[in-house]
Amino acid sequence: METPRITVGMVLRHLLMLFILLIFLFPIFWMVLTSFKPAEEVLTRPPTFIFQPTLDNYRYAFEDADFSLFIRNTIVIAGLSTLLVVVFGSLASYSFARYNPGDGHIMFFILTTRMMPGIAVVMPFFLIFRDLGKTPFGQALGLGLDQVGSLVVAYTVFNLPFAIWLMFSFFQDIPTELEHSARLDGYSRLQVFLRVVLPLAAPGIAVTAIFSLMFAWNEFLFGYILTRDAARTITVGVSGFQTQQGILWGPLAAAAVVCILPMLAVAMFLQRYMVRGLTFGAVRG
Q1: Which helix (H) or strand (E) is 181 found in, with range?
Q2: What is the largest CA-CA distance in the chain?
Q3: Which fold has domain 27-38+55-278?
Q4: Tens digits of per-residue pLDDT, 107-135?
Q5: Distance (Å, rounded) from C-alpha 54 to C-alpha 121?
Q6: What integer best gives the mean pLDDT of the chain?
Q7: Which of 38, 77, 91, 154 has its CA 20 to 30 A from that of 285?
Q8: Is the peptide bond before 53 cis (omega within 30 degrees of 0)?
């Protein structure tokens, strides 16, 4: 077997990629480093790279700032909204892919709702959930200000158009002949969707779920406006380390590390599914 020939151009390309990678990873490295620094070492000039590491910043974030509550809230909100987005999005996108109501105009309308900036509707959402929280129905479902249910609904509404558009192409790439064969075997339309279509579209659904989960996890605006203390999310909690005495850089860095680790683990663990899903249907027979 002939070994590949190493050229000067190949070495330069790899060095360039390594340099770009270091530029992008250095802020994360510095954030992790700062999270283990004592308070007196955080803002030293020149910056120190060798120091006695401490866990005081993480203790402050979890004990004094109650960051564990923000993590639990975010897990519940992001998980429930992602589940709702996948369920309703898959049903809607499959219907659009097979029946195409409105000759594409409805799909375009759905896309325009995704283009709408969140800041334009955050005040109507605030007023709606404020009034819902005063009703027995809203109180029973947790649909009020500083309630987990309000953020679940808000995130679902904003992620659903993206999910419909993303899964629409995946369902279009599935041959309709498979569905016709299943109907001839006595399957109902719902059974065809559950037993034939969904397993084939699983890579696309996985990609949609991953992106919806990341969007919900990283969202800040609605979490900041619609919550106070009980339903505060992790991104809003990170912003809470700015006090009257100044910014608590050590605990802030520790909270930010905790904030990015779950999504980083999800992206690394599900990377192969993301690549498979994004290339699903790219090559046609």
Answers
A1: helix 176-184
A2: 75
A3: MetI-like fold (1.10.3720)
A4: 778 878 878 888 888 999 999 999 988 88
A5: 43
A6: 85
A7: 91
A8: no
- Encoding tokens for residue 278? 């994004």
Q: What are the extents of the domains in the chain? A: 27-38+55-278
Q: Give the three-state DSSP class for 202.
A: helix
Say what the pLDDT of residue 105 is: 77
pTM: 0.83
* d(C-alpha 182, C-alpha 194), whole Å: 11
The position carrying tokens 């990341």 is 214
Q: How far apart are CA 217 and CA 259, in angstroms?
A: 9
Tell me whether strands 242-243 and 246-247 are parallel, antiparallel or unpaired: antiparallel
Identify whether the C-beta of residue 254 lies closer than 8 Å to the C-beta of residue 35.
yes
Q: Tell me the pLDDT tens digit for each residue of 48-94.
A: 888 888 899 999 888 888 888 999 999 999 999 999 999 999 999 98
CA dihedral 127, 129, 130, 132 (to 10 degrees): 120
Length reported for the chain? 285
DSSP 8-state assignment for residue 174 = S
**What does the angle CA 68 – CA 222 – CA 247 come to, to the nearest 5 degrees?**
55
The predicted-structure confidence for 124-170, as pLDDT tens digits, reads as follows: 999 999 998 888 888 888 888 889 999 999 999 989 998 998 888 88
d(CA 122, CA 219): 13
What is the rounded CA–CA span in Å between residue 266 and residue 61? 23
Contacts of 180 (CB under 8 A, 6+ apart): none
Report the alpha-carbon distance of residue 109 to residue 87 in Å, rounded: 20
Q: Which amino acid is at 215?
A: F
